[in-house]
Backbone:
């Protein structure tokens, strides 16, 4: 921002201190010190020191990776036991809605300025170049190399980037910056939509969006489009979870950007099982066909098509051997990743099956838990990709007890009602009985 305001400069440690004080002032519940809200705030803010240590130097990065693994482990435990937190009292923010809206707009302006003035992410520029080549129906001049490990994206990223190419004149840097801004804006609007449609509180959605923009971990990776896109798509899939076709299409696009949303599919399929699973699955298949079609348009022959398809998959994830990469697993024997990955597989199977009756509360917590758990076995700088799960974690942090939400209901049959926002509740014919969320 020093290019706009002469003499202005806020480095990453300074922004961490400033945002820490601001977040505590606005969101910390001083009247309920021992509350789950305060614990969640402490965990989310604890991620920033680890990222700062990773960015500092080699000696500090070793401690940083261990720090991030420790905090990620605490986050995972918090998410796995989310179902036990039955008391979720409504907690207002320490700022009225008008002040929250002003703070949200100011934070968005700050992040936009960082996007414009900071160096553009290399992976985002490469995705922008691929989008320009896709519009010209040209085969990508370069695919991701081993040096780009961790940023290898699928065809969905370039397909989505084509929507902004005509408005930027085809300049790769402008496309990358536009995609970064639109991704942050999509996350912000998605969080507000979740608050309005499913929590019956627009102010709660605004609070989630404001905190997303204020958190230092957002500012640290503000230009990393390839990691912002899947998070934005997942948030909107949550917002549209009561429409299986839309949710399936959005999750299909997310799977076409990076690898990790693939592990959400079993949980979401189990969530829809017996009610909308067919529409969800068909939307996934249709989205996959569209993505493959985009590769066909830029393939000269079958060999070129195979090359692009294989090149868009990060095959290094399947390697359990030493390499020259950086990150937590570069410090230890990579063979230790095998039992970690096996534990992750067991966890995924468990959360897919349990609990038998699934609702929005379990869908949110289990989805966020799986993405956090991915950080432990991911070979490339594991633990630093906080943007993957940050929006979902914020929704889990701010969500109220959904069974106690007020709202108008429209009866579908004698047992099922749909309140404002689409969450399903069991409706008993006897008056005075409590309503509980039910999807099966």
Residues:
């Amino acid at each position: 921002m020093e290019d706009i305001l002469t003499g202005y400069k806020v480095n990453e440690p300074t922004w961490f201190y400033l945002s820490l004080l601001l977040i505590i002032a606005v969101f910390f519940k001083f009247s309920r010190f021992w509350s789950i809200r305060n614990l969640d705030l402490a965990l989310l803010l604890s991620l920033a020191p680890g990222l700062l240590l990773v960015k500092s130097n080699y000696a500090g990065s070793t401690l940083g990776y261990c720090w991030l693994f420790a905090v990620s482990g605490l986050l995972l435990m918090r998410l796995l036991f989310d179902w036990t937190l039955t008391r979720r009292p409504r907690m207002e923010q320490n700022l009225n809605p008008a002040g929250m809206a002003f703070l949200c707009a100011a934070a968005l302006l700050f992040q936009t300025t960082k996007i414009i003035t900071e160096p553009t992410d290399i992976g985002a520029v490469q995705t922008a170049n691929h989008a320009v080549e896709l519009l010209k129906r040209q085969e990508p001049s370069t695919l991701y190399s081993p040096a780009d490990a961790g940023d290898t994206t699928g065809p969905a990223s370039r397909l989505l980037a084509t929507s902004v190419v005509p408005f930027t004149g085809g300049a790769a840097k402008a496309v990358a910056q536009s995609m970064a801004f639109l991704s942050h804006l999509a996350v912000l609007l998605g969080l507000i939509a979740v608050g309005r449609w499913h929590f019956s509180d627009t102010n709660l959605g605004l609070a989630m969006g404001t905190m997303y923009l204020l958190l230092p971990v957002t500012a640290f990776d503000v230009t990393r489009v390839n990691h912002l896109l899947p998070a934005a798509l997942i948030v909107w899939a949550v917002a549209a979870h009561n429409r299986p076709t839309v949710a399936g299409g959005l999750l299909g696009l997310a799977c076409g950007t990076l690898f990790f949303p693939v592990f959400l599919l079993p949980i979401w399929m189990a969530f829809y099982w017996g009610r909308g699973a067919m529409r969800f699955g068909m939307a996934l298949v249709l989205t996959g066909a569209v993505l493959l079609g985009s590769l066909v348009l830029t393939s000269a022959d079958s060999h070129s098509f195979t090359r692009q398809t294989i090149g868009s998959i990060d095959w290094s994830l399947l390697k359990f051997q030493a390499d020259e990469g950086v990150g937590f697993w570069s410090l230890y024997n990579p063979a230790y990743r095998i039992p970690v990955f096996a534990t992750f597989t067991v966890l995924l199977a468990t959360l897919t099956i349990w609990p038998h009756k699934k609702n929005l509360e379990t869908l949110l917590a289990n989805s966020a838990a799986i993405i956090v758990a991915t950080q432990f076995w991911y070979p490339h700088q594991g633990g630093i990709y906080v943007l993957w799960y940050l929006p979902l974690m914020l929704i889990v942090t701010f969500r109220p007890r959904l069974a106690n939400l007020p709202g108008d209901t429209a009866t579908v049959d004698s047992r099922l009602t749909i309140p404002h926002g689409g969450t399903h509740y069991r409706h008993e014919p006897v008056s005075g009985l409590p309503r509980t969320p039910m999807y099966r």
Remarks:
- The longest strand covers residues 416-419.
- Residues 407-440 form one domain.
